[in-house]
């Protein structure tokens, strides 16, 4: 802000919101990389996969000592996630206003901004902070990959007669090898045509939405057989590979993932209709931890939903991107969003009073069987 305002924080803040108001509009942007329609289709599927099924993320929630603490952690993570526009997009807008078109590589924008605004002694400190953040994510991915390899590859194929310690040891060896290989591959990503972030998103499409599609069908159906999931995975990954590597259509990869998601779900439903499971699938419950839910989960969730509504209101022509900026109409829309969110909280709390939680009922049923 001081750099924008030439030494004045107030002038810098005013300049941020008035110099390029169009940069604050998150709605209706038909950008080539992420069209707004794709954000409401394929991008939602990517986020469902990442935040709901990706091992490197959900292992943190699965490690909670009980359901209550797990729900608290998920809500806290959701709260910080909604702040992403502030900690990611705002510095990007500041960089654009300070640096303009001096750089064509978006991956270099943040480092140039840091070098411009920070005193020289703090640049090294900031680099250390960034390096620590990168290592944290890298360690999480390596750890989750080693876990998946040990439990889903090594143990079923080579784990007969092996102790848990041996299985864990071989998982660690695989993680170490993966880390070494990734160190040699990582420098090549600098040649990605649309930058690092976009490259990662496109490549992730080979596994994120295909895996989520199978898990999604597992949640909503109980009769679809395993062969349907295998056929769906082969079709999804194969078709996506042809689109990305051979045909290379102008359509956003997010639209492609959304279309393939619908087709794959339809394929699994058809196969499930033609050759269903003999018995409906029942999720096993092991009673390893307490599953008493957090009593304030709906209030926390309602507040986070309000934050999402507020973000789209503020970062649109109703808010900071409008001709007059924040107005009384903006405040009215925020009030409507708050009412809708609060109504949702009341609905779910009332529903819980009428009907018992399915998970709790399942556990009680398991306990009743054990007692009998």
Can you give a write-up of this model?
The chain has 372 residues and is mainly α. The C terminus is likely disordered. It is built from 16 helices and no strands. The chain folds into 3 domains: 117 residues, no CATH class; 86 residues, no CATH class; 75 residues. The longest helix has 39 residues. Pfam families: SSF. Keywords: Membrane, Transmembrane, Transmembrane helix. It is found in: Membrane. GO terms for molecular function: D-glucose:sodium symporter activity. Belongs to the sodium:solute symporter (SSF) (TC 2.A.21) family.
SSE topology:
Layout: H1 9-19, H2 36-39, H3 42-52, H4 55-62, H5 67-82, H6 84-99, H7 109-117, H8 120-158, H9 164-185, H10 196-204, H11 208-220, H12 226-247, H13 253-274, H14 297-314, H15 328-354, H16 358-371
Helix pairs in contact: 3-11, 3-13, 4-8, 5-14, 6-7, 8-9, 11-12, 11-13, 12-13, 14-15
GO molecular function, one term: D-glucose:sodium symporter activity
Subcellular location: Membrane
Keywords: Membrane, Transmembrane, Transmembrane helix
């Amino acid at each position: 802000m001081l750099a924008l305002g030439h030494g004045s924080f107030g002038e810098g803040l005013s300049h941020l919101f008035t110099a390029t108001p169009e940069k604050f509009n998150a709605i209706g942007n038909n950008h080539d990389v992420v069209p707004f329609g794709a954000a409401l289709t394929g991008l939602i599927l990517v986020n469902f996969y990442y935040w709901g099924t990706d091992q490197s993320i959900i292992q943190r929630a699965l490690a909670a000592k009980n359901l209550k603490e797990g729900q608290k952690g998920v809500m806290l993570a959701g709260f910080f996630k909604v702040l992403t526009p502030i900690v990611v997009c705002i510095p990007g807008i500041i960089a654009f206003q300070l640096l303009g078109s001096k750089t064509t590589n978006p991956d270099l924008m943040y480092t140039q901004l840091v070098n411009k605004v920070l005193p020289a002694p703090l640049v090294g400190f900031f680099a250390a902070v960034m390096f620590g953040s990168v290592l944290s994510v890298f360690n999480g991915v390596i750890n989750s990959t080693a876990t998946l390899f040990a439990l889903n590859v090594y143990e079923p194929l080579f784990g007969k007669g092996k102790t848990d310690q041996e299985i864990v040891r071989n998982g660690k060896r695989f993680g170490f090898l993966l880390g070494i290989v990734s160190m040699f591959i990582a420098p090549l990503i600098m040649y990605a045509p649309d930058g690092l972030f976009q490259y990662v998103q496109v490549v992730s499409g080979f596994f994120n939405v295909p895996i989520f599609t199978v898990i999604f069908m597992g949640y909503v159906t109980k009769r679809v057989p395993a062969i349907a999931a295998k056929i769906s995975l082969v079709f999804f990954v194969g078709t996506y590979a042809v689109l990305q590597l051979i045909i290379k259509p102008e359509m956003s990869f997010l639209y492609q993932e959304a279309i393939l998601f619908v087709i794959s779900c339809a394929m699994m439903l058809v196969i499930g209709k033609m050759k269903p499971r003999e018995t409906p699938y029942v999720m096993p419950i092991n009673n390893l931890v307490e599953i008493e839910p957090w009593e304030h989960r709906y209030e926390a969730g309602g507040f986070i939903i309000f934050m999402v509504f507020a973000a789209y209101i503020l970062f649109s022509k109703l808010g900071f991107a409008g001709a007059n900026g924040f107005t009384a109409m903006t405040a009215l829309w925020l009030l409507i969003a708050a009412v809708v969110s609060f109504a949702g909280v009341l609905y779910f709390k009332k529903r819980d009073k009428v009907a018992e939680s399915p998970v709790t009922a399942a556990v009680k049923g398991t306990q009743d069987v054990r007692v009998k």
